[in-house]
Write a structure and sequence with these properties.
The protein has a 3-stranded mixed beta sheet with strand order 2-1-3. It has 12 helices and 3 strands; from the N terminus they run βαααβαααβαααααα. 75% of the residues lie in helices and 3% in strands. By secondary structure, it is mainly α. It is globular.
Length: 308
């Protein structure tokens, strides 16, 4: 341990294969990030400014879009700077902060999807109790749960990582990942507590997934009996299902690769797998909700015709 230096800077080597087309990638990334900002901010502002949209479902959608902005801000600005720079470095503290933001964004996404599933379950399976249960106070509690719980759990993971002695500084990705930092620890460093908290975090969010599955089983069983419930399911639950499936598939690909993936994969494919959840969900979510939810779609159409 005497020859081990304290790591203060990490090298993000995942960007090295972009040297030949860095200008093109910079242009498209900047445009794509602007599209993400435009779509999500538009949905947020429409919901905030329209009093008719101050309902639990739309407020949760607003929280969903805010989380999309939060997560992408943790990646895209730094990635754009790396494309402009000749050396792709990030400070030790900045790396831990980026890992905290991206991990809490991913967990918060699943928490909000779970809360939205609960809201739709009450609306479809318990319509007479909906307004009694889903009060402003209960809605505030659910939103706080969907934000504070992921942030607290991931903060514990990052805090445990910050206590580790590192023997490497190379991160073979486009951004900092907690599990990759843990793998840079010295051979005789005890990482048991990190492994326990990591698996506990996975268990918590697997439970979220099981809860969502349970709510949809009940909703589908209820919708089979009623034409009106089927219509409500198609209008409000299909966008939720698309968001859920897209996000879970993207995260599973990344988790499976981090834990069990081959190192022989092309770097470009590894980069795509890593940032898939930052590419698809932040654009897809406001798009499908904007077009599928009638009130938001009508509001957007009204604004377009008003401008004309």
């Amino acid at each position: 341990m005497d020859n081990v230096s304290v790591v203060r800077v990490f090298i993000l080597s995942g960007i090295n294969e972009t040297n030949n087309y860095r200008t093109t990638l910079l242009t498209f990334t900047l445009l794509y990030y602007c599209v993400i900002l435009f779509f999500n901010i538009s949905i947020i502002m429409i919901i905030i400014l329209d009093q008719h949209l101050h309902e639990p479902m739309y407020i949760l959608l607003c929280s969903f879009c805010i989380n999309g902005l939060y997560g992408t801000t943790g990646f895209y600005p730094k990635f754009l700077l790396d494309l402009l720079s000749s050396s792709q470095q990030i400070s030790y503290e900045g790396c831990l902060l980026q890992a905290l933001v991206l991990y809490s964004f991913a967990c918060c996404e699943l928490s909000i999807l779970a809360v939205m599933a609960y809201d739709r379950y009450l609306a479809i399976c318990r319509p007479l109790h909906y307004h009694f249960v889903m009060t402003k106070r209960r809605l505030s509690q659910l939103i706080c749960f969907s934000w504070l719980t992921p942030f607290s759990i991931i903060s514990i993971n990052i805090l445990l990582t910050s206590r580790l002695k590192l023997c490497g500084a190379n991160i073979d990705r486009l951004f900092c990942v907690n599990w990759v930092i843990v793998k840079l620890t010295c051979y005789d460093t005890d990482t048991l507590s990190n492994n326990i908290t990591a698996y506990f975090t996975i268990f918590i969010y697997l439970a979220h997934g099981l809860f969502i599955t349970w709510t949809y089983m009940h909703m589908i069983r209820t919708c089979v009996k009623s034409k009106d419930d089927r219509l409500k399911f198609m209008q409000t639950c299909v966008p939720h299902l698309v968001s859920l499936v897209t996000f879970i598939v993207a995260m599973l690909f990344d988790l499976m690769y981090m834990r069990f993936g081959s190192r022989d994969l092309p770097q470009s494919l590894k980069n795509f797998i890593a940032i898939e959840f930052l590419l698809i969900s932040p654009v897809l979510n406001p798009l499908i909700y904007g077009f599928k939810l009638t009130k938001i779609r009508n509001r957007i159409v009204g604004l377009i015709y008003f401008k004309r």
